[in-house]
Amino acid sequence: MHSGAKRRNGSTCVIRPMTEADVPAVAELEAQIFSQPWSAQGFLDALALSDTVFLTAEEEGQIAGYIGMYLSVDEGEITNVAVAPLMRRRGVGWELLLEAKREAERRGIARIVLEVRTSNEGAIALYEKSGFSTVGIRKDFYECPKEDAYIMIYGQ
User: Which domains can be identified in the chain, with CATH numbers?
Assistant: First the structure.
C-alpha cells in the first residue's frame, strides 16, 4: 500500500497502514486538532480490530496526517481525518481519502459515511471534491463547541 505521490511543492508523502509505533505521534496530533480527542489507547484498540482501516501519511519521517475507518458488511464509517496544521493545503488529506477509498473498495465496501462539522468548510470542500455528497444533518452532534454535523456519503 505504500503509495507515494508527488505534490505541488515537490515533496513526497507516503500513505501506509498505521502501526502501534505511530500511535504516540497520532494521538499527539489528535489532541492538537480536536476538542474531544481520541486517546492513544483508543487508537491502539482500533488497530487491534480486523474490521478497521487506519492509515497514516508520513513525510520525512514525521506523521503528516491520518485517517481511520470502521468497516461493517458493505459500509465504511470514517471516524478520524486529521492533517497536521503545517501540512494542510498540500494534498495530504486528499491522498489519505483516496487511499482509504481504494482500501474500502478492495474490501468490498460499497458506501462510506462520515460526519463533519457544518462550519468546517475546508473539510467539506475536500470531501465534496472526492465524491462525497451531503445527505443530512445530525443536530448537536459535536460538543466543545456544540455544533451540528453534516452526514456525507460516498458510493451507493
Answer: 3-155 (3.40.630.30)
